[in-house]
Design goal:
Order of helices and strands: HHHHHHHHHH
Low-confidence stretches: 6-26
Number of strands: 0
Structural class: mainly alpha
Number of domains: 1
Number of helices: 10
Mean pLDDT: 84
Distance between the termini: 89 Å
Length: about 280
């Protein structure tokens, strides 16, 4: 014979079990994610606004010479680590939230490199398309557009010591390895994954779907672009386009690593080409 279930008390609770409690107080989880998102969003915005008034006579953000490059890079990584750590303490984001899983084995590396080339082409195509539309609509002229591009070209010297990059091999290799893949690729893509996770945590009904995450990637691209205000207005637009592409890669692969490698390769090839550009196109710097 089967044992009959115990009688249910009049108040409807199970007499032999403690009442079940909610995992979090109502709204507590979203509040923690909101603190996470606020800290992460503020990081590039504060940097961008602080660098917007940079004088052309100031030294590059990464200093002059190899020792300054290593020291300032370490400080920047440390500052981001503190901000990221505080955000994580607020949200306790998991490795899954941050898309830390390496999903494609060895092929992640060539995949990221291929994405780097594709992103460079895509940004160029978008810029050319916008310029063509503006010319076709007679919004601007060829001469005025050329003048705008020359007057607002990205100020690479605001970030890196171009002379040292050209003349000092040690500085050059630090720039194309440690700076490009560590300070640029890993740090900035970890920031992007934290931003995407934050939007899902605060507004899960809006940003949990693929379409919602694409919208979040667009918002992240805006903040990412603002973080490059020190390089000029055109740099803000170009880096926003690049950031949106990197966000799409992260969303599509559900992993941070293709974006890290694509970003690092993009920065490294840009750094490596700078000495040639400065030698053959001196007015481009």
């Amino acid at each position: 014979m089967s044992t009959p279930p115990p009688p249910i008390p009049p108040d409807g609770s199970q007499s032999n079990q403690p009442p079940l409690l909610p995992a979090h107080a109502p709204g507590a989880s979203r509040l923690r994610w909101a603190i996470h998102l606020l800290l992460i969003t503020a990081f590039p915005v504060v940097i961008g606004v602080a660098g917007a008034g940079r004088s052309q006579t100031q030294q590059p953000a990464l200093g002059r010479g190899p020792l300054a490059l290593m020291w300032i890079s370490a400080v920047e990584v440390l500052i981001f680590g503190v901000v990221f750590g505080l955000a994580w303490l607020a949200s306790r984001a998991s490795a899954s939230d941050l898309r830390w899983r390496w999903r494609r084995g060895f092929w992640t590396v060539p995949l990221g490199m291929a994405y780097s080339v594709a992103l460079r082409l895509a940004v160029g195509i978008v810029v050319a398309f916008i310029a063509t539309v503006l010319l076709a609509l007679h919004v601007t002229t060829t001469n005025s557009m050329q003048h705008f591009l020359m007057a607002n070209r990205p100020d690479v010297g605001a970030i890196v010591d171009i002379r040292a990059l050209h003349q000092n091999p040690f500085y050059f290799w630090l720039a194309v390895t440690v700076v490009s893949f560590g300070v640029g690729g890993l740090r900035e893509e970890l920031w992007r994954s934290a931003f995407l996770a934050g939007t899902r945590g605060v507004w899960p009904e809006r940003f949990s779907s693929t379409a919602g995450q694409i919208a979040a990637a667009a918002l992240a691209a805006v903040a990412f672009g603002i973080g490059h205000l020190a390089q000029g207005v055109l740099a803000v637009g170009l880096t926003a386009l690049l950031g949106f592409g990197l966000g799409l890669i992260m969303i599509f692969h559900r992993s941070i690593w293709p974006s890290v490698i694509a970003h690092g390769t993009f920065d490294a090839t840009s750094m490596a080409l700078l000495p040639w550009v400065m030698q053959n196109l001196p007015h481009a710097g």
